[in-house]
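Dear support,

I submitted the protein below through the web form. The confirmation email said the job was done, but the results page showed an empty box. After a refresh the structure appeared. I'm attaching both so you can tell me whether what I see now is the final result or a partial one.
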Amino acid sequence: MNNPPGPTLLGIDVIYVGSMLAGLAALAVMFAIYTAITIRDPMAKRVKALNERREQLKAGIVTQTAKKRASLVRKTETTDKMRDTLSSLKVLQQSQLEMIQQKLAQAGIRRKELAVAVIFARMILPIVLGAIAGFMIYGLNYFPTWGGMKKLMAFATAVGLGYKGPEIYLSNLISKRTDAVRKGLPDALDLLVICAEAGLTVDAAFNRVAKELGRAYPELGDEFALTAIELSFLSERRQAFENLAWRVNLEAVKGVTTTMVQTERYGTPLASALRVLSAEFRNERMMRAEEKAARLPAIMTVPLILFILPVLFIVILGPAACSIADAFSSKPGSQH
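What the results page shows now:
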């Protein structure tokens, strides 16, 4: 005896679809639980980069051994080959190299020699992706239904993606890191004020803020810890603050560094200046939050129409539609 078919909606088995969605929801819950119980220290991966920077600053003061010099030479052999290739092709400019180095620093990548690799990738990737796309589109005729214009657009897209891909990737990293630093800057300034009023020196205050805010804002803690290291080793303290402004693509950080340089030069009270900056940044963050809240109704209109209302109609009208479909599909003589 065959089992009666389940309720259907538009020819789709409702029980089957519901079982699939329940399975996906269970997998999502398991993944959320796994990510919640496997929380890692966000500062753990940054300690290595900070230690490398500390060693680089020590290397400028203490004479390096032959073994350390050899290890540094081995690390830069690949980038030196890339640099020689770009220089022979007359495509390596110092201004372009400095700009890429600054973008790498703003993205949280400390190795300046990777700027040569980025420029080399911008030269090689268009050729590689263009060759692959041309071979697939024109050589193998992998898309026979495409017209000539569509094939040309696909080939041009592959070449353009190869040229702009590294820059887009760096810009995305910079944007995420800048937003993370912007969120924690007012709290960091408040803690700097407390450290300054407690009598700590500037480098000790930066180090303390980096330790306290490292878990909540790992990007900001990374920058403050690196600034504290540079304040301890660099001969000019002003250079450490300028390096902080150079590494972070944020006007607020540039204002903080300008204030720190002025207090170092003229001896003005540090706590009062930082308190004013902290209040200003907090007001700016509140205004930004209010702006996002004011835009929320207009932004939610499209998801509401496309996703929420159809689901709501299905939930409300689905059982009635299934009952009506079953009533019309049943034969009159089957009830006797």
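Response: this is the final, complete result; the empty box was a page-load delay. The chain has twelve helices and two strands.
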